[in-house]
Structure of 6-phospho-alpha-glucosidase:
Amino acid sequence: MKKYSICIVGGGSRYTPDMLAMLCNQKDRFPLRKIILYDNESERQSIVGKYAEILFKEYYPELEEIIYTTDEKEAFKDIDFALMQIRAGRLKMREKDEKISLKHGCLGQETCGPGGFAYGLRSVPAVIDIIKNIRTYSPECWILNYSNPAAIVAEATKRVFPSDHRIINICDMPIAIMDIYASVLGLKRKDLEPKYFGLNHFGWFTNILDKKTGEDYLPKLREILKTPVDVQTEPLFKEPSWKATFDFMSQMINDYDEYLPNTYLQYYLYPKKMRDKENPKYTRANEVIDGNEKETYERLREIISLGTMHGTKYEITSDVGCHAEYIVDLATAIANNTNEIFLIITENNGAIQNVSSGMMVEVPCRVGSNGVEPLAVGSVPTFYKGLMENQYAYEKLSVDACLEGSYQKALQALVLNRTVVNTNIAKELLKDLMDANKGYWNELH
């Protein structure tokens, strides 16, 4: 089998250790020659890089080369895959997004509402710049983008790189939800095949099919999940906000019982309720900074101090989380031409018949060595079509604002967003977000 060279862009991320462990677990079906970790922050990159050296020495000794660097040419030259998971402004800017939103009586959330808007206008210039650099040194490599907010990023990459079919935008949230469904049913996620439509963080499961028997579990799941259930899917429920997120799914199913919703729809369908639950002094960003992020780097420093993982509590297992698993599964499908079905963010082009052709939808796609092939969804009911068209208009205007430097379109985007709506509030929000994001956003006029 061919051995591949890959670069993890955002190599210093708290998500990278799990991704590296997954690559060790998957070496038989996705063999690697070289792994490069690239980040623009040398301190975090060094911690993850030193951990990687220990990991690969013990679990992947046949790997020919491991590099961690802040140099773009060294990182991107002659690679087969770039796995991109950057966070422009890191968690400190996420904290500002959330707290500025709450200050103005709006929802503070990473990818939804004003927080997602602010994050999107930071992410787009950074992602475009990185892709241009990757294409300079590796014109034919596959770029698998995980960077949030994925909907806005996908709309931007479609416009800036319209003929580049080797850029694929994905999100692991539907897969995390599928883990919950599998837990409820006493099955494994890979026993199930979803039918799904929508936008990123804005979609609905229409069927949950058993791959062997064809049985549709959606009616059964809908009845079970109308009442909050006690499922223990690690590592999601280590953090209280995630437990609350999945508990709230029951209200959405009771109110809208046709399909099963992506959990993020709670922010758009119940924005006041979600806002009122937030603590303006201690948001989700604070929870992550004090929790998972701190724990991850403490664990890595401990492993570096020990100089080994074998025979310690840090032995890797097969369960490393859906974030890592999904992106490696996708790379494997491309490398091995498996034609497996994944939920991908892709240009509609008739997959959903009665919404805009250019809409960046999230739908089941067959994936192989030639890229992504969306599967037909058909038409969707009026309620869902209306929600999607409104949300996509917000996403388009957000990208317009970023690429054109248009204040007017930025304002229009915020007013269209279901978590804002009010023009005067949108003006105040935009002023504060512009001040906070100087140096990150393209300038708005």
